[in-house]
Every structure is written in C-alpha cells, then in structure tokens.
Amino acid sequence: MHFNPYGGSAAALAAALVNADPRSGPEDLLRLLRDHGYKPLGALDAAQARELTDWAARLSPVFDHTPDQVDLVNALLAGTASKPYISTHDQRAPHLHFAPENAPTAHRVRAFTAAGLAHAVCDDPARLGRCARPDCRTAYVDTSRNGRRRYCTTRCANRVHVADHRRRHHTDRAGAAPAGQVR
C-alpha cells in the first residue's frame, strides 16, 4: 500500500515514539527523529523530551484497534491546534506543514504524527497495529502489499511459529506409542 508522506513516514514516526523508552532523553529522541527522516530538526530540551514522551503515551491507544480509534485521533488533532499550509522551504517541492516551521520541535512532531495517524486511519485503519506475539506490544504501521501483517518483525513472527511447531511436535510425540510398540 502506498502511503502519502503524512500517512506513511509520519505514522511510522508515531509508532517509533510509542515504542521508544519512556525514559528517553533529548539526545535519544533527536536520534529517533533523525533515524525516521524527520526534518527540519531543531533543539530539543528536557521539557520538550518529556512533552514527546507524554505525547507518545497519547498516541499509543490508536494502535490498539479500539472502536474509538477515530475519536482518539480527532483528540490528537485537536491537541495540536494545527493550521495546515503549503511550504517550499529548502528548495523542496511544495508540501504540507501542520505546524509553523519555526515552532519548537516537539510542537512540530506532535502535529506531524497526529496528521500521519489521521491519514493512516482514513486510508485503512487496519494498517495500524500491535505485534500479535504474546508479551510483545510493539506498535507498527503495516505497509505490506496485502495488508496482513500481524507481527512487528520477522523475528517475532518466527518465535511464534517455532513455539507453535514445538507445541505441535510435543503433542504429536506425547500421543505416539513408544518405539517398537503398536497401539
């Protein structure tokens, strides 16, 4: 599925913030933003880092497939008080901004991620999810062609499949007759 920049990269950044350690400091969060291609970057102080970790806690329930998903995203959008406009900064092609370019980084990230989740929910809300492996609550944005992703990574999927195989194999062996005997 092809997402626009807000529905794709912004929603992916929202998932990354949800998955980040809530004790992340300014440098960790700036690295996370950089790793997800968020530009332009500005300074991020301790108060803004706390603001982003608090924001991540508000983003989190959107990935849970609850009946109030639209209401949750609308509350996020209202919390950003965004005013969309077209920007052409840094010789880039015209693109949408949901917060002023000179606003603090945390403010811009909040508007960006709220808009991204709104686009994703409008395109296909089932594309936002949580890993199906027990004990893993990692949030993800499903950008696969068929939209059937259930795990955050191949590693989690493999763990589940190996555990299922071992359980079936153990069950099969437990019901089998001892070697040399016929039941």
TrEMBL record:
Region (Disordered): 163-183
Coiled-coil stretches noted in the UniProt entry, renumbered to this chain: none
Pfam families: zf-CGNR
Cross-referenced SUPFAM superfamilies: Jann2411-like
Domain of life, source organism: Bacteria
Domain spans labelled Zinc finger CGNR: 127-169
Name of the protein this chain belongs to: CGNR zinc finger domain-containing protein
Organism ancestry: Bacteria, Bacillati, Actinomycetota, Actinomycetes, Pseudonocardiales
